[in-house]
Amino acid sequence: VAEFVGKEKVKDRKNFVYRIHDKPDSEKMLNFSRFIKRWGYKIASGNDTKVAQSINKLLDDVTGKPEEDVISSLAIRAMAKAEYHPVNIGHYGLAFDHYTHFTSPIRRYPDVMVHRLLDRYLNGGKSVKMNYLELRCKHSSDQERKAAMAERTSIKYKQVEFMQDKLGQVFDAIISGVTEWGLYAEIIETRIEGMIGLRDLDDDYYVQVVRTNLEKKQIDFVLYKEKNK
Asked: What stretches of the chain adopt beta strand conformation (E)?
C-alpha cells in the first residue's frame, strides 16, 4: 500500500500517512556495537539498508539465548523512535523505503487514515493537504507515546506491588542496563527489573530485594553472596 502511493511520479504523488523510522544516533550505535562484541556479535558496516538488516539478523541470532533480553533491550534503546508522518523518509529498523500501518482500523487511528486515503485515491480523489495530515500524524504519534508510557507505568506499579512481600528474598537475575548511578537487573523468573545502586555494588551473581516504593514505582536490589555452608 505504501509503495503503491509513494512510488507515483512526483507530479502525481498523493500525500499519505507513513510509519517512519529515522537513523539511530551514531554514538549510541557505536557503544552498542562495542558491547555486543563481548558475545562475539557484530553489526555490518556499509549503507543504511545493510546495517539495518544486520541488526535484524542479530536479534534473530540471539533469540532463545541467555543474552537475548539484554541485547534486545539495548538495541531498542539505541534506535530512534518510530512515528507517523506524511513525509516519507523510510523505516530504518525494517530496512523499508516505504512503510505504513494497514492493520485493522479498530486498532489505531493512523490505520483509519490510511484506509480512507487509499479509498479516496483509488476513486480518483485529489491529494489531501499536507498540513491536515501533519497535525493528525503528530497527534497520533504523541498519543502513542503517552499510551506506551501509561502501559509501562501500570506494569511497573503492579510489579512493585507484587514484590512488596518479597523483601530479603534472593533471585537469579541478569544485568539489563548500565547507567552512571548503577546497574539495572532483571529477575530471570518474572522479568521484573530493579536498580542496584553504585553504593551496593559487589562482585557476585545473585540479586536480593531490599526496598520497594509503590508511590515511585521503584524496586531496589543488592548483589547477594551466598554464605558458605
From this structure: 18-20, 83-85, 170-179, 182-187, 193-197, 206-213, 218-224
